[in-house]
Predict the 3D structure of the following.
Amino acid sequence: MSLRIQNDHARFKDIVRGKIKQNLKHYIKKGELIGKQGKDKITIPVPRIDLPQFRFGDKSKGGVGQGEGEPGDPLPGQPQDGQGQPGQAGQDAGDHGLEVDVTMDDLADMLGEELELPRIEPKGSKLVTNKIKYTGVNTVGPESLRHFKRTYKQALRRQIAMGNYDPMNPVIVPIRDDRRYRTWKVETKPQANAVIIYMMDVSGSMGEEQKEIVRIESFWLDAWLRRNYDGLESRYIIHDAVAKEVDKDTFFHTRESGGTMISSAYRLCADILDAEYPVADWNIYPFHFSDGDNWSIDDTRLCISLLRERLLPASNQFSYGQVESPYGSGQFIKDLGENLGRHEKVVLSEVKDKDGIYQSIKDFLSAGR
Amino acid sequence: MPRKLPPEMLDMQRQIETYARAAGLDMFDCYYEMLDFDEINMVASYMGFPVRYPHWKWGMEYERMSKSYEYGLHKIYEMVINNDPCYAYLLESNAMTDQKMVMCHVCGHNDFFKNNFTFQHTNRKMIDEMANHATRIRRYIDWYGVELVEAFVDRCLSIDNLIDFNSPYIKRKRKEEDGGTTQPPDKKRELGLLPTNREYMERYINPDDFVASQKKKLEDEAKKQKRFPVEPERDVMGFLMNHAPLEPWQVDVIDMLREEAYYFAPQGMTKIMNEGWASYWHAKLMTEKAMDSSEVIDFADKHSGVTATSPQNINPYKLGLELYRDIEDRWNKGRFGKEWNECDDMAERRRWDKQLGLGRDKIFQVRQIYSDVTFIDEFFTIDFCREHGFFSYEYDRKRKQWVIDSRDFTAIKTKILQQLTNFGHPVIRVIDGNFENRAELLLEHTHDGVDLDAGYAQDTLRNLHAIWSRSVHILTAQDQRRLMLSFDGSGFHERSV
């Protein structure tokens, strides 16, 4: 049943959507959304959506209550904004912030619209999902799929036509020819699978702030790619001088120290890809974040050859994000740029601070690969 | 779909209304409808009416209610509309005891709507009127597009607290001048001089300085006549409707929304009295008549929930209920009048009982001729305040938290009255519709100690500007400083005055 209010409700949701889009830049920067992620919905605090009126400032107003306490005692249970006004008409709306639930897909769409991201055209459609759909009726079939209503109607029609239907005693006896059965079709749908491999440098020079940037950025990258692929897998690799695969939680919260050998991560990444994600069936997105400080020129050279020979041929796009850190030299992005800058599958982006995340996401995703 | 009451509940209604009438309540006919959660949330979002004009704010309210219901934060038990016949809604899933209590409660509201003076001007066919408004606004949306109409409705709603709440009850406009006389102007009478036939007495009866002062008065008056509006106008919405450069459909929209604002105003002006009255009657009817012994616990549970007190705000149900009971008790025992007020012997006061038995009559009179402000002003006594443990609280800027400020009776009462005055909204009037001789709009906020919220004030000015289409200004004060806030279409300005 649909209620009359649904129209107003939908209109309100539209307005909320508009507001979220307007403020997307702010949300992207803040990263406060990440903590509010539910299963497939996310709760977003939306700035005031209401009808402004001349009204009193809350803080200078005070109020009257009832109960225990001496003057000077803190008020038991601090009042929420907008309370303490008994004279107000009926049901006043909650005054300030509003929390709305948005699905991740919606959010990703908004991101896409806001950043003007192109849709990704997936490669490899060999993996197929089969879905059975009941599409029609037939005169033959297994008894378990007998369509009772259609069978009954058929029998009724036949009996009326034959003139042996008695409305006073409406007994319908179906014969073999009356029987109707559901039939089905198998629908095949190409399914594009994708895997994101996040690699992050956790050497001593990557501080909390740098990791926070990576965290926020990977949240949005994940949201967008998830919108574009039905099955999306994420793998996480951290590295200092050696690389290891970890789970998501560890990825964002470990603090290691020590040197940096980026090649170790690339090698591990390539090994994982070889072992589990055949190029033909998977869309592969390695993302690597670091502060750009590598141990030696030799290792950088090794990285470049690893990229050229193993990672790039397998990937849809290889993305390197360099987060600015006070300790890093920031050399790595220059080396990559010199050697692979013109390679169409390589995207390099520098993130100076949280404000830079917005642009960086755009850099990574605007190729639409 | 709303459903009519099942027969056993119709019987229940008939029974309860019989009790209520016997107790002296004077009610409109009442129709109940049963609603499920979604429906009751919808109707509540529409402020009790089944049909309202399309607007997102109902949707927002609905979202909020459905959510807080989902989280178990609130539950609506009943709703009742000031209309003849009176319409009330029951939540289908409520227990029978609750429904009974709600019906008793509704009887109280119904009687209050019918008899309290503040409601006398309201349209008692408001359900129809609201539906008509909805149809008209829908039509404008069809004609002009939803964005345009909705934006205008938003603006009107942004000023729908700027009406003259008291205007239905007083004649504020000065008497229209007597129709055109053909007599030559009588200079003497115009000046308001005293009549005399003896010329030689003239100088003594109307001395020169008196004549001069009268002349000045007359000139001032003439100057005032050129002002626009002649007297400061509290019905800002009405002023804009009549004088802003608007399309005919816009005038119609603002007219409808203003009518709705005036319709709802009395409910804001009598929140404590109205809820108190209804609570008084549900308690009375239930405990004395309608309830059977098996329902006592459930009833007590619900009743104590409704009348729970809180340190953060006043519960109008509780305050109203206790005030009525206090009044009834005082008039029964004769605790009023000069003698009572002047008696300061505590022992005697405690014993005071003149056995007058006037309580019942008094509360019926009170429910008829008082509104919240006068109700509190007259019956919120120092004894009552102490007995019920009221206190006032303030925001402590140093400690960044709210603290109990005082238990001083005068302070508490002043605060309550301040919250009730003008609905708890700031008093704002149109001073000049031709400010600076540039057809700009000048408003004045009558500052009584509480500042306006600056952010809201700016947004409201923006909306006012959109209606008035020329610069708008408001005189107010902030942190003890008189200032004028202006919006000229491109930016906000603030200057001290």
